[in-house]
Amino acid sequence: xxxxxxxxxxxxxxxxxxxxxxxxxxxxxxxxxxxxxxxxxxxxxxxxxxxxxxxxxxxxxxxxxxxxxxxxxxxxxxxxxxxxxxxxxxxxxxxxxxxxxxxxxxxxxxxxxxxxxxxxxxxxxxxxxxxxxxxxxxxxxxxxxxxxxxxxxxxxxxxxxxxxxxxxxxxxxxxxxxxxxxxxxxxxxxxxxxxxxxxxxxxxxxxxxxxxxxxxxxxxxxxxxxxxxxxxxxxxxxxxxxxxxxxxxxxxxxxxxxxxxxxxxxxxxxxxxxxxxxxxxxxxxxxxxxxxxxxxxxxxxxxxxxxxxxxxxxxxxxxxxxxxxxxxxxxxxxxxxxxxxxxxxxxxxxxxxxxxxxxxxxxxxxxxxxxxxxxxxxxxxxxxxxxxxxxxxxxxxxxxxxxxxxxxxxxxxxxxxxxxxxxxxxxxxxxxxxxxxxxxxxxxxxxxxxxxxxxxxxxxxxxxxxxxxxxxxxxxxxxxxxxxxxxxxxxxxxxxxxxxxxxxxxxxxxxxxxxxxxxxxxxxxxxxxxxxxxxxxxxxxxxxxxxxxxxxxxxxxxxxxxxxxxxxxxxxxxxxxxxxxxxxxxxxxxxx
Length: 592
Hints:
D-Maltodextrin-Binding Protein, domain 2, 7-stranded mixed sheet, 14 helices
């Protein structure tokens, strides 16, 4: 009986629970229908609302980014910063970094980076102190006293003193040392007054003397145990030089591409105690190529920052994608006439060549802006006289002068006198610029009846012709510099084989000699200018050369070089006058 009651009670509870589950299911289904499925129809409007807010948020973020970028250009600027490796390609052979011996382009480049002198040129091409703080000269103009700056050091940490300066110039004078600078220093006494003072005693006054103090100074202690006969071949010169310039020696690597092509890489690092301030570049690599084509190829492949060539290829010069720095040289490109023999010993013929030369046309075809050279001094130089310029272009006057002098036009339009043809041999280096100028001069001279045998020669043959004076006329550039002392180019003493023989015209004039000597021995600038007038007048009348133009030095780079500015320089290596300030890297910095 009890069992039956239990079963009935359990059945009723189960049925009641089942009914509750059914009720809950029906309620859930009704709630889902009411709160979900019936609202699906309005979901599209909700998505449009959400999408609108998302788009607005994206727009706000975008505007914020644009505003930040715009403000960054206002508060920030792209500015050069220190660092980076600068690699310069040079053509030639590296043999000697010692400034007592460095003469080639490659040697001079390395030497200029490693060493500095008592004096240097600034960005205005003015002579200023480098190791020297200044100099004085006595009333007679024969004793120059140079004062060193304090706390100078060599790159090995040794103090740089007057002993090093005295050693340098006495080494140049020593015949056993065989320095190519020796001829300019004979007869000058160099003495140390104290640790920072040196005196130079000259046999006669020389107003241009301070300009000869720009050569690099070498450390006396590096040669203390070597006889002078071994200085030229010392390891110091090419293995481990110790200098005082903006950069110091790091490493050298030689690459032999083949039997005829060699490359030398010379790695330099900044000298922190350089007198001009520590360089901003991390390193400077001089890459020396023996093959010009390899040099140009490496530059085109952007393996080099810059290329240093006396005559760079025309396609590089004209490439608008490259950076070109054009430095006007304080030099003169001239056609020098051999006045000692042949038809050009005749002054009338030389004057006729000057008058028949269309120098303005020549300059217009150079492809760069330069200044005309009309006399042996450069325009703007101390002593320059506008009244002493060479004869102007006037081919009709040239023809008339030749007619009057007996040079009459004959067969083929060539003039002759007493059966002797008016014929000249004209030499020039076979570079693109010189060849162009020489061809135009040939055409100008032939137009007035002169037969011109033009010889365009390779470097070695051309140098031999210069040394032997194997020409009637020669196209060449001479370095004049800042000071107007042009004694070595025009004084008759410089035709002697025992001299430098830089008088390429073999010009001899007593009036010019006396004037040149007087001008270089006067310290007062006004008096110097007066003393040079007779020389300029004699040069104008005698026409030993045809002045053309001031040449330029072209420096081409693959990148903009901050700190490198175009200005007049005296030699190609003067491009390094402020190399310590060069920068090749850039970054955005905040305006202060």
